[in-house]
Description:
The complex is a heterodimer. Chain A is mainly β. Chain A is 0% helix and 51% strand.
Amino acid sequence: GNSVTQMEGPVTLSEEAFLTINCTYTATGYPSLFWYVQYPGEGLQLLLKATKADDKGSNKGFEATYRKETTSFHLEKGSVQVSDSAVYFCALSGGTYKYIFGTGTRLKVLA
Amino acid sequence: GAGVSQSPSNKVTEKGKDVELRCDPISGHTALYWYRQSLGQGLEFLIYFQGNSAPDKSGLPSDRFSAERTGGSVSTLTIQRTQQEDSAVYLCASSEYQGKGETQYFGPGTRLLVL
């Protein structure tokens, strides 16, 4: 079946550091891939998505590229801010309505 | 416009009691999902509603869990005879359509604690 694996946290970085959160997936066919973010005390919200191979999703300085050859969708940001501290979830939707979410990676950015 | 809302935001109950959790999706969204988020775990799919179709209940962990969606809008998740392992955050999400590229919009969740 479909699955998503993302790196375990927590990830602690200093402000302005480079961020990578790894996400790999297993799926048949051509799933859509997502990154959701959950800020403290809030629900999940979509950060970015990509619906086909080689697409790059981007938002708020975050980027992720849909790599079918490596079945990956790694999240990157060139310079993190304290306000980026949150839990990040990688997810896929594989042709049905069911979404598969990773376990989440907590990011803490220190001033 | 208004997002997905859930109530209550927090619920503390005693083992063996029944609880009802409510979700108000975004107006016009035909798809509605319930998930459970336990500490340190990802989101566990519980149930899915799409329009007037029969719901997909395949994720419900036991027959103590049930959900309904009235008039294609508001949904209620009911847990009967609660157990301590039911303690978790219950998240509701809605999307405009059913489809693999569709964005899900999440509510803030209901944090359930069973003593």
